[in-house]
Amino acid sequence: MGYLVTILYIVAFSMFIYGLSGLTGPKTAVRGNYIAAVGMLVAVVAVLIDIRETDNWILIAAGLIVGVVLGVPPALRTKMTAMPQLVALFNGVGGGTVALIAWAEFLNSDGFTAVEAVPSAPFIIGSLFAAIIGSVSFWGSLVAFAKLQELLNKNVEKVFVSNAKAFQVANMALALISIGLAVFIGINADGDPQSSLLIVGLLVAAGVMGLFVVLPIGGADMPVVISLLNALTGLSAAAAGLALNNQAMIVAGMIVGASGTILTNLMAKAMNRSIPAIIFGSFGGDDGAAGGGGAAGGTVKATSASDAAIQMAYANQVIVVPGYGLAVAQAQHVVKEMANLLEEKGVEVKYAIHPVAGRMPGHMNVLLAEADVEYDAMKEMDDINGEFSRTDVTIVIGANDVTNPAARQDSSSPIYGMPILNVDQSKSVIVLKRSMSSGYAGIDNPLFTADQTSMLFGDAKKMVGAVTEELKAL
């Protein structure tokens, strides 16, 4: 049976790796998810075989049922706009699970004094590392979920953002406390009842640190934070696997940790910000409530659906720039219909995707793929930026900060130096927004008052539908 368990673990993490490789493009992403899910099922079967002599089958079955009941319905019912929140929540549950495993192993081993299955040093270090990082990830992910779901009071959120430096000091103190407790527990593993209080203190200190790390981080940085928390959860799972001598947890955790770290680094570079700058010096508060008018002064020119349709119908090339507003309105299908009509009229249509558009990595790609937009038509920022100067019309649908020319022109802007989509270089720009509110970073966008820009106000789905009807009439 031991050989069978090992073989199943190898099969499981091989499927994890193969499934992950399928996530490189929308065409293979669904298949990749299915393969990885089957791999996880194989890993669960391997664990059940490995613990076949346990007396806790009723408890295990109950846990499996609860997990399915709590996990499947939200995954099926959650709209694409709320997917970032779901990712943050599920990621947090993973981190919390790892922290609880570390606590349970501490209690089960009588304060690390009854370690038999594996060498004591990896067991103790892995458990304590998993306890700290898992707790940070759990509570930090809950805050990320609350921010994205807009459960936090906006005034309270602004207090945390404006006092970020005070929380930096608190986090340094909490980190020292957590590490100090971990070292003390590890060195003095003697089964003393007082040690149980110390491990609880460690979990509490790490949990508060998780809260204090994420609470002051502004909305514009949340996609990077979600990716970072995901990487931390993976690393904590790998540490727990090291403690339990479980190969599947080690490999799966390292895959998640490594891929999450790479993605976090890529997204930070896309914003021209270091990860420490994001954690300790974030910008942006709420979603459009800050920043007042959002247009940095100047005259705003409104347009109509008919005028927008005429502009695009007689263009050679149109670029669509999707943002979170498109996701909120669920406008991806009507955008695809509009693009089809333009292409029938001989207009070339492309989609410009900024790495941090939306509220999670790849948010816009997933939305457009859902509407059957061809993968080749979705152009990454570096590939599309040279096209804007040759583009007749660019239509910006719900995007704000990723098109803000202040990132290039205004050295005093919080987003100065952040690579953006060069929308302002287009011959004509149509910006579709509900109002003149600022974006997620809470700063004004001078693109809205540029000479070549016209504003089309209204719900994205409704207004793109109106433009589509006008195109049909031309």
Automatic annotation (TrEMBL):
<keyword id="KW-0521">NADP</keyword>
<dbReference type="InterPro" id="IPR034300">
    <property type="entry name" value="PNTB-like"/>
</dbReference>
<feature type="transmembrane region" description="Helical">
    <location>
        <begin position="250"/>
        <end position="268"/>
    </location>
</feature>
<protein>
    <recommendedName>
        <fullName>NAD(P) transhydrogenase subunit beta</fullName>
        <ecNumber>7.1.1.1</ecNumber>
    </recommendedName>
</protein>
<feature type="transmembrane region" description="Helical">
    <location>
        <begin position="6"/>
        <end position="25"/>
    </location>
</feature>
<feature type="domain" description="NADP transhydrogenase beta-like">
    <location>
        <begin position="6"/>
        <end position="469"/>
    </location>
</feature>
<keyword id="KW-0472">Membrane</keyword>
<feature type="transmembrane region" description="Helical">
    <location>
        <begin position="224"/>
        <end position="244"/>
    </location>
</feature>
<feature type="transmembrane region" description="Helical">
    <location>
        <begin position="195"/>
        <end position="217"/>
    </location>
</feature>
<dbReference type="InterPro" id="IPR012136">
    <property type="entry name" value="NADH_DH_b"/>
</dbReference>
<dbReference type="InterPro" id="IPR029035">
    <property type="entry name" value="DHS-like_NAD/FAD-binding_dom"/>
</dbReference>
<keyword id="KW-1133">Transmembrane helix</keyword>
<keyword id="KW-0520">NAD</keyword>
<feature type="transmembrane region" description="Helical">
    <location>
        <begin position="169"/>
        <end position="189"/>
    </location>
</feature>
<feature type="transmembrane region" description="Helical">
    <location>
        <begin position="32"/>
        <end position="51"/>
    </location>
</feature>
<keyword id="KW-0812">Transmembrane</keyword>
<feature type="transmembrane region" description="Helical">
    <location>
        <begin position="123"/>
        <end position="148"/>
    </location>
</feature>
<keyword id="KW-1003">Cell membrane</keyword>
<comment type="similarity">
    <text>Belongs to the PNT beta subunit family.</text>
</comment>
<feature type="transmembrane region" description="Helical">
    <location>
        <begin position="57"/>
        <end position="76"/>
    </location>
</feature>
<feature type="transmembrane region" description="Helical">
    <location>
        <begin position="83"/>
        <end position="103"/>
    </location>
</feature>
<keyword id="KW-0997">Cell inner membrane</keyword>
<dbReference type="Pfam" id="PF02233">
    <property type="entry name" value="PNTB"/>
</dbReference>
<comment type="function">
    <text>The transhydrogenation between NADH and NADP is coupled to respiration and ATP hydrolysis and functions as a proton pump across the membrane.</text>
</comment>
<keyword id="KW-1278">Translocase</keyword>
